[in-house]
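Summary for the funding panel

The consortium committed to producing paired sequence-structure records for every protein in the target list. Below we show the first two records in order, beginning with the earlier of the two.
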Amino acid sequence: MQRMVEPMRLCVGVTAHRDLVAAELDAIEAAVEGLFHELMAEYPDLPLELLTPLAEGGDQLAARVALRLGLPIVAVLPMEQAEYEKDFTDARSLDAFRSLLGQAENIIRLPAAPGNGAPPFTGAARETQYAQLGVFVSNHCQVLLALWDGKPGNKLGGTGQVVGFHLTAVMPGFEADSSPASLLADNENDLVFHVVCSRDRVDGQPAAGLGVGEAAWFSSRDGGARTAQLPSDYRAQLERLQRFARDWCEKEEVVTGNSSGLLGAAPDLPFPSGSELTDRLFRAADGLAVHYQKRVHRGLRAIHLLAMLMGLEFILYAEFDGPSYMVLLFLALFFAGVIIHLVGERHEWHRKYLDYRALAEGLRVQLYWNLAGVVDSVSVEFAYDNFLQQQDVDLGWIRHVMRRASLFRVRGENPDPRWVPWVIEEWVGDSATGGQGQLAYYARKEVENTARYQRTSRLGTMSLWAGIGFALMLLLMGGEGHAGTRQWLLILMGVLPLIAGIWDAYSHKRAEKELIKQYAFMGRVFGKARVLIDGNTDVGFQQRVLKALGQAALNEGAEWLLMHRERPLEHGKL
């Protein structure tokens, strides 16, 4: 199988002290190299990349190790290069910076932090730029590599504060955009790999209880307990990230056949940075979701059909005192259902269908927000941290995919405002036209699901009352009537309610009744958004509406995921 180099990677971000002790460098390099080897061995289908500011000291050390192992580096600069270079203490470290920068696969330059104005930056403004840098690295990596003495530190944007922000989403002295809900949520993006080091200064020894060169994993969970092995929750997250990359690689033709992406009919306008990558990720998630949805629905139909045949076969065997091979047929039908269930469980059809659909809907919002300029163009925060954050931590991998696209959105870049009307037509659309847009989609799905649910209800009602009718016929016949007729009436009396029950169970598994309400609700939300947009031609107002619409869509995606997670592909629990 070919190894996917991009667009999906596992990103290791670096925060490190500048003033490392020369005698400790070999031990630190060995620990960093050990981390890279561990991740490459655990996740061979998820290529590594290093996100680093390339500052002197630990940043450059980690970059050298990465390049020696053939890993790409992405440089992120807290300010323009000429301004940044003022902070290098000697010509040797500056030459190393320029050399490493020349080998970087990509260079990200952060704009002036809010309130800082134009460079040159001095004093508090300069510290704010470094605080912004630490927040960016923390928000856009899956693992934070900290070459750190273990002390909290009180310098704004320093290594200790960056580690603290990674754990708590709070950096004293720097106003981040985190919502109150995200501060209390179960954070998936707080994994730290700590390599202990000293600092070349007075009292530069590591914090008490830590030894130079020691390496350990920790997070905000379990009281910050340090472990030699990658914690199991985060291992599962990264494994799911790898499975997405692997599925994409192995099923590229399926992806191409099932999804055309969102930018196929894009106007002749310059694409905002990161939007084309977001569309590629959306296309992969959408195509895979359609693929696994088909598997799940076929499995559901097969299992419920087998259950109905088992019931029919049992009734026929009991009423006609059938031959012994009918027992074998009953068991064969049962185990056929078991096999379908086991195959679906082994290949995670249900889990992948739900996860990939939720990811696709998150990426849809991310792309349209990016195109329409909804997201703050300057903020270095990850704008979608609330998506699914109130759910299980194992869903965090979905946000990690979205972080990948967010990484390459250039801060300070404002998209062409002519994208706004295109986004409105493509995303919101108009239910009357029956064409593109979520309005038309929700209207169509509401009609389809309502018709399907009504058919199910009518069939169930008819089958149930027909069975009761046959029971009444038997009651009225008493002991009279032909024995064969009575026998068939008994069979029909049992089979028809059985059909009704299994059909109702199938409808419940597909959540048809709940989906009708959800489609109707979202149709009203998008309808109201369309009315507001049509009633006000101010682009800023339209962007506000699109932002509110995106939040509603993200919330709806989370609710949809939770609803369907309670209805897995099971056998024997109809």
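The next record, for a separate protein in the list, is shown here:
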Amino acid sequence: MKLKYINHRKLLIAGVFILAALLNGCKKDLNLVSEDSITDATFWKTGADFKLAANNLYNGLDRFGFEDTESDIAFNFPNSVSNGNLQPAESVDLWTDSYGYIRSSNNIIEKGSASTDAEIKRYVAEAKFFRAWYYWKLLRLYGGVPLITKVLGTDDPALFTPRSSRTETVDFILKDLQEAKADLPLQSALASVDVGRITQGATLALTARVALFEGTWGKFRADGDATKYIDAAIAASREIINSGTYGLYTDKGVQSYRYLFLEDGDDSRESILDRRYARNILGHDIPYQYDGNGYNPTRKMVDLYLDKNGLPITAPGTVFKGYGTFVSEFQDRDPRMTMTMIIPGTLTNRVFFPVTKIANWPDKPQRNFNTGYILYKYMSEDPLANNSGQNGDASIFDFDRHLIRYAEVLLIYAEAVFEKAGAISDGDLDLSINKLRDRAGMPHLTNTFVAANNLNMRNEIRRERTVELTLEGFRYDDLRRWKTAETELPQDVKGIKITGSEWAGKTPYSDPSYLSKVDANGFLIAEKSRKFDPNKDYLQPLPTKEVAFYQANGHKLEQNPGW
């Protein structure tokens, strides 16, 4: 049994344990101490108590999902976020859940703020990290939000705290992370039973992510504070790089990028923060979901992959072989392309019973025929897990979801350096992007290469980010912070080239229902008539129930513009 299984059992039982503690602590006579229940009077005494309380905060970490369907690089069904049809909702789980975890974080911070015990201070620091994490989840969608920094009673006037500004919210997040860092351990100092807990590296990495997001959001909207956040992103990411604590996963040689996202990549040096899973404790069925529902790369995503010489497929001199056959567009490309999607007809271990190698095509197993591209990333080769469905247990997969990994830190550093100065040296490229290129077996990105081939360095840095982090849930945020969503998201979602290729004779694409859904160049149109209103769609609407609650009590919770 892996150590992570033991760790996660503790995380799972913590929510029930702490709930019991809090409920039993709500007694009218505060002078009474129950002899057979856990109360505030008996809890919050030791580091172990605070650790149990902090465990609950991990339960809200993101599980596997379909986030990139909110953008232009993945598709399964029409998505109201990416196609411009989002409507205000009465309640939103992300809002409710985030504030629930913020409340739990505030409780731990309040109970331990006066302690000088190093162990208690560590879990107070974890609570500050998580308070920052959950405020970050709110900031990225809504902008500035009400900042609640204490546990509120039912009659507390702070229940109607107005929204803070964007800047106030970002600065609060960064302050929590800075304060948390001082009392958290280094990754290298973690005991084996604590692998997966929050470390100094996690605070720095989240600082870099938030600061880059806000710095570029501001830069492309002429915000005068943008530079200070870009500087913060550079400093935080550079500190991680200089620490030597983390590194890229390379244990599988040329196939390391693929196996990083499966069981082999768990607890590697690349992992900074993971959503951890454990067989027989908390498993998942994401390979089944991605096959059944589809998490299909789009034409936009596929065409971002460079040729093997580092050139865009539209550039003069490219060795790109075109779209004429089932396999031609996959040949002589960035190797990450075929570690992210399957070359049609390739024999692969997939979710079939019994597990055998099958010729994999877009119509097998039950995935939607949306783009004609087949996902390979996240598709486990574990024979036990792949056989589990025949016994009625589809939640047997146990590989972790990487929420923050070292590769992202390298990409943050490269982008922040470039956006600060409008240029980046070859030395900084070697320190960042070219490490990813080395793992993938791709040529280095250099200033000479960019100039010689009439490329744009910003575009190439963004391309590298999108390719490396594809289908990990970053693209929607990236398009919004770059202020390019108004250009990219209204475009039709496209897939394989049908007309003029072998696909025209392949079921189901040979059917008139597909042959009639192509553009002038023969590419499948999976969705058209998308829209994006730049006056409102860069932020999402606050839950209407929250706005109404304020109004009903004589207060105002300002809704986002246009909603």
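Regarding this second record: Strands lie at 74-75, 271-275, 296-297, 341-342, 347-349, 357-359, 374-375, 401-405, 493-497, 523-527. The chain has a mean pLDDT of 91.
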